[in-house]
Amino acid sequence: MPLGVYVHVPFCARRCDYCAFATWTDRHHLFDAYTSACRREITETQLARVASVFFGGGTPSLLPADLLCSILAAIPRQADAEVTVECNPESVSAQALAAYRAAGVNRISFGAQSTAPHVLASLGRSHRPGDLPAAVALARDAGFTTFNVDLIFGAVGESAEDWARTLDDVVALDPPHVSAYALTVEHGTPLAADAARHPDDDDQAEKYAAADEVLGRAGLRNYEISNWARPGHECRHNLLYWRQGDYRGIGCAAHSHERGRRWWNVRTPERYIAAIESGRSPIAGTEELDGDQRRLEALQLALRTREGVPRSAIPDDPTIQRLLESDGERVHLTVEGRLLANEVAVRLVGA
User: Fold this and answer.
1) What is the CA 109 to chain-centroid distance, rounded?
2) What percentage of the chain exceeds 70 in pLDDT?
């Protein structure tokens, strides 16, 4: 299996109301120290050449481009490695994109979420609808031939027409890849504290089905529950996760996996920097899966994908069987099954 690297950039200009990630809006003074700590962790990890790198956050595009590129330069990569940087539409520039391309970045992921102004406001987003097409144009001008548009559906005040318009607006940009996630309520967020803003399950189910239809009609095939792509534009780094591959997490709160062993770094950037600078391990905790746990997890993850699993791997459970469709000797989730993927996972545990 190929090896991937995830680099966590924990800085944001503004925290979205639904976000529970390890991100901060008041730590910009740590840019240099944090970047230096990431480079040192990479060096001490002694990585083999990796097949994919993913800069996530937070808002990686908020970090000065030369600092981000210095982290990338420290990572040994295969010649055809996929390198993705998450960008907010309002914080990307032609200069930054040119620097990314020169450093080896070949994929951009734009956090658009919606093209309806009132929906963006409901989510706590700061960009305007027009920022997305402008950012996509800049990426194409910089030479990026593959990119992703991230969407979120189910915000309060988002009508079916709003969501349909967002899908049409995104399809008009001819993206090679689109991710669409149901809004989830995470503990401790402003969204969690306001029950009136919690999403409706039936509304989200209808919007997911609409996304699958519209994106499929535009030539984007669903290859994982929340991801659609044109052939050859699937995110190789994300597929590494779904295939239970090995990856290294760099930076605060970053998670790693190797052959069933998982570990994660301390959550705050200050503690992470202090650990690295003092020569201590930044690891905060570990867990190890036994053989049965790994096999069950592999089955649950593979069922999330279009590749699916061998028919023989599925228990004779009528509830599970009705949510599957066959592709030769393999089975994968139907559209309804994707909506009930968590229920399928629970029943697999019981079986």
Assistant:
1) 9
2) 99
